[in-house]
Design a protein that fits this description.
The complex is a heterodimer. By secondary structure, chain A is mainly β. Chain A is 7% helix and 43% strand. Chain A has 2 helices and 14 strands; from the N terminus they run αββββββββββαββββ. Chain A starts with 9 loop residues before the first helix and ends in a 5-residue tail after the last strand. In chain A, 51% of the residues are buried. Chain B is mainly beta. Helices cover 3% and strands 43% of the residues of chain B. In chain B, strands 3, 5, 6, 7, 9, 11 and 12 form a 7-stranded antiparallel sheet that branches. A 4-stranded antiparallel sheet of chain B has the order 1-14-4-8, with no helix packed on it. In chain B, strands 2-10-13 form a 3-stranded antiparallel sheet, with no helix packed on it. The longest helix of chain B has 6 residues. Chain B starts with 11 loop residues before the first strand and ends with a strand. Classes of the chains: A mainly beta, B mainly beta.
Chain lengths: 176, 181
């Protein structure tokens, strides 16, 4: 009856390509990004994404910027804030390249999810988009203040107040 | 719940998202800037598609630096009949923050819909894209004069303005942008 949504190629990407970048999953594709230090130590950012076909997630990744330091944690949450995948605290390593962290292989069914990213200090840099806070709030990005590194089993987020949308994503393969 | 193959709608939808016709114009998130409302009491209607039933719980707009005047946000069917509106609502502080307005929870069924916005003033700013009006016109964006608050039904004509604000809906289980989950 109605055509399936050709959501900027995201659905096709999931079926054919081994990776899904969240910069393309929130809003329109082609967002600009540059290296910038992490705004607040241990702060967690939750980035919404949706998938239209079942995928088997093998790794999570972020894109390190011009400086690396401390530890990072990456994860995936369901739409109710329950953690489904977590990388665990991992030393940030290598500048200006994606850093992929192995996770327990986890099947995600079609639906809406959140990607969680956390860093232990403000020396670390990541490639990030810096759209206005009002716009990021309007795309459903949240954040959570935490006392230490390690993503919680249940998210408790509030609306984002930093113009900081880090480049990160899912991998359905084990190597970039 | 969802079909095995098929993209679910986002929990927070923006009229620049892929479900909307203007997405092909490339009004990128990071190119939107705060802008005043083009014409007082003029309503704009942005087409979008729904592929599976969704329960809309609130509407929102991404406010800019200046807070002023009243806005009305709403959803219309493709024949111009009002489905739900917020009613006249004062644009509210804090500035540079997305303002959420609660509505009566409303189901949208698969099909074509319009997201509507109207304001009684031209001073308050909302983040918006401003390509040429003809591009928006060929994407099906419509407008209506003397349409504040949003009327029922709406008598729409092709837009003559280059205005795509960052506005949209929130669907269940989300009811707000303030907290997650």
């Amino acid at each position: 009856m109605y055509p399936r949504p050709a959501v900027n190629g995201i659905q096709t990407q999931l079926r054919i390509l081994p990776m899904m970048s969240l910069l393309g999953a929130v809003g329109n594709v082609g967002l600009t990004y540059a290296s910038a230090v992490y705004p607040t130590a241990n702060k967690i950012y939750y980035i919404p994404f949706r998938i239209g076909a079942t995928v088997l997630v093998k790794r999570l990744y972020c894109v390190n910027g011009a400086a690396v330091s401390g530890n990072i944690d990456l994860g995936v949450y369901d739409q109710n804030g329950k953690r489904l995948i977590v990388a665990g605290s991992t030393a940030q390593a290598s500048t200006n390249v994606p850093q992929a962290i192995d996770t327990t292989d986890t099947e995600l069914l079609p639906g809406c999810y959140y990607f969680g990213i956390q860093c232990s200090n403000t020396t670390s840099a990541f490639f990030r988009n810096n759209s206005a806070v009002s716009l990021l709030q309007g795309r459903g990005l949240y954040m959570e203040t935490a006392g230490g590194i390690g993503l919680p089993s249940t998210a408790t987020g509030v609306r984002i107040t930093n113009a900081y949308f880090p480049a990160c994503g899912l991998m359905m393969v084990t190597a970039i | 719940m969802y079909p095995r193959i098929g993209m679910p709608h986002p929990l927070v939808f923006n009229v620049n998202d892929p479900e909307a016709s203007v997405v092909t114009l490339g009004g990128r998130l990071d190119q939107a800037t705060g802008g005043t409302y083009p014409v007082a009491n003029r309503a704009y209607f942005f087409p979008f598609r729904v592929f599976h039933p969704i329960l809309i719980t609130a509407l929102y707009m991404s406010n800019g630096a200046t807070i002023s005047g009243n806005f009305d946000l709403g959803i219309y069917d493709i024949n111009g009949n009002k489905k739900v509106t917020t009613g006249s609502t004062a644009q509210a502080a804090p500035n540079n923050t997305a303002q959420v307005i609660d509505i009566t929870d409303t189901w949208l069924q698969p099909g074509g819909w319009y997201f509507a916005i109207s304001s009684d003033a031209t001073t308050g700013t909302v983040f918006r894209s401003s390509l040429t009006a003809n591009l928006y016109k060929q994407s099906g964006v419509l407008q209506m004069s003397s349409a504040f608050p949003l009327p029922d039904p709406a008598t729409m004509v092709a837009t003559s303005d280059n205005y795509i604000p960052n506005i949209g809906w929130i669907r269940a289980p989300r009811t707000t942008l303030a907290t997650f989950p």
